[in-house]
Amino acid sequence: MNSCSYSDDLMSLFLRRKFSCCFHYDVKTKTSEYRCNFPKEDLFNMKAADPVEGLLLSSAVCGPDKTVVVEFYKEYRRAVHEKSEGKYIDTLIRANVDGKSITMSLAVQVDTDENGLACGMTGYMASVSDFGGSQQTKAPFPVDVVMKKMLTTKENFAVIQLDIIRFKLLNEEHGEAAGDAVLEYIRSNLGRVWGRDAVSARFGADIFTVFTEYSDINELEERIEKVCAELQQFGDIKYKFSFGIYLVNDKNVPLRTMTDNAAIARKSAKDNAARPIKYFEEKFNAELHNRHEIESEMQNALESGQFQVYLQPKCRIGDGKVIGAEALVRWIHPDKGVVPPDKFIPVFEANGFIEQLDRYVHTQVCIILRKWIDAGIDCIPVSVNVSRIYLGNPRLALNIKEIVEQYRIPIDLFQIEITETYENKEAEASINTFKDCGFTLLMDDFGSGYSSLNTLKNTRFDVIKLDREFFGRSMMTERGQKIVSHTIAMTNDIGLEIVAEGVETNEQADFLDKNGCKFAQGYLYSKPIRLDEFEERYFGRALPQE
């Protein structure tokens, strides 16, 4: 069967339901096909060629769930425009059909051609109540079973969401077939292992949800330990879970809000490698609100020039001479002032906007370098950060090279900083392409806990940037000083240049200089500063802004 044709099995499965609809969209012809057992105009705006867009533009979706469809549509469009390899996306929404408000499962499978590019999309919508009361199900989730259990039980109730930490790496190492087998193994055994009279299901991707009664917190954690003990290995494949837990205090809270809260806690749990379990706290709602606020303003901020490139000098420790600079982005909000990078960068990395921001910064750095060259200034190299989540893009290095060539910038003046947080074939391929293009590569945050001495053995990086915490903590003990000293000596021996980050005191600078690290960056020399201030301080004059 052609990968972009309708799935007759899928259609026949769901058209037996009273409120259900299957649809297909062809990317090339921009045409859609529907198989509904109710008038499709009741649920879709037929002016839109794409059914998901038609759902978004319709008036059938209940007001509070509009935002759910918006987020679903964004994820779906990203999957269409990226090399998605048949991504599956699903969610639950409430819709008005035939005069009734119905909770429906919405799911799409992005169809790909032989090159892995999206050529179409097959999807369905179906009332979840039509799926009966099975205790174990793939999708949609038996909402009616959950609600009945919550309202009739006299015990406490919790919603627990779990996923596999770094599931993408599992797929890369063992293959997608093995990854799918792991997910099916967890899905089919989760309810049995959890015990009690719980309802569990896979909520798309590698995310699973358990709705359960419980007597106290100790019981919950004992059952989580049991799940970890019995389900964190499939054959020879080992992995770890992160858990988000929402304790239901008010059973009138919408089920979607409960699962959303558990999801928020789960995402927060990933930050704690030692104990990846997190209970939902009300402060998470404030964080979620801040994230939505940032996302609502980010595009306008980019278009209106609110993001500005600041420069932090890299200096020779001996005499303070500037030998380079790092470009750092700052968000100067017209009402809020400076928005700290740690508030918006993680949000942009999560929603994909970081790619647009990176490209903007890279372009601005080329404009700066071009201005310096045209003004006859003896240029210093400027390094830019490349978000590690895009190292898997095979065109990343080539795209950046095109920008550099567009502004006729010598390749040695535009340097690339990468945080080597993990090793995989895609990241290695991007690093090799950067080097093949002629870029100077800097390994950022060396010694931060991810990089190791082993990464230096066959590295194609040119410069190692010592993490501030690495040498800062180590200087406090004699043993630590020896570790830093030997690390610097070994790095020099294999021909790599070293720059120490976050140098704040003369004591730190003297120690680094005596042990062979000749260059540093940090507040001892300068914080990141505006372009005009940088030019005035280091070139003697601020050049006209374009």
Supply database-style keywords:
546 residues, six-stranded mixed beta sheet, alpha/beta, disordered N terminus, single chain, 25% strand, globular, eight-stranded mixed β-barrel
Give your account of this protein's structure.
The protein is α/β, with parallel strands linked by helices and 546 residues long. The chain contains 17 helices and 22 strands. The strands form four sheets. The chain has an eight-stranded mixed barrel, surrounded by six helices. A hairpin with a 2-residue loop joins strand 10 (233-234) and strand 11. The protein starts with 7 loop residues before the first helix and ends in a 7-residue tail after the last helix.
- Poorly predicted regions are 1-16, 130-142
If you average the pLDDT, what whole number results?
82
Q: Trace the largest sheet across and list its strands.
A: 14-15-17-18-19-20-21-22
Number of strands: 22
Q: Profile the largest sheet.
A: 8 strands, mixed, barrel
Helix content: 25-40%
Give the amount of beta strand, in percent.
15-25%
Radius of gyration: 27 Å
Total helical segments: 17
Helix vs. strand class: alpha/beta
Q: Based on CA inertia axes, which overall geometry fits?
A: globular
Measure the end-to-end span: 56 Å
Task: Describe the secondary structure blueprint for this structure.
Layout: H1 8-14, E1 20-26, E2 31-36, H2 51-57, H3 66-81, E3 88-97, E4 100-112, E5 118-127, E6 136-137, H4 143-152, E7 156-164, H5 167-174, H6 176-194, E8 199-202, E9 207-214, H7 217-231, E10 233-234, E11 237-238, E12 241-248, H8 255-269, E13 277-279, H9 283-303, E14 307-316, E15 322-333, E16 337-339, H10 341-351, H11 354-374, E17 382-385, H12 396-406, E18 414-419, H13 425-437, E19 441-446, E20 463-466, H14 468-474, H15 478-493, E21 497-500, H16 506-514, E22 519-520, H17 531-539
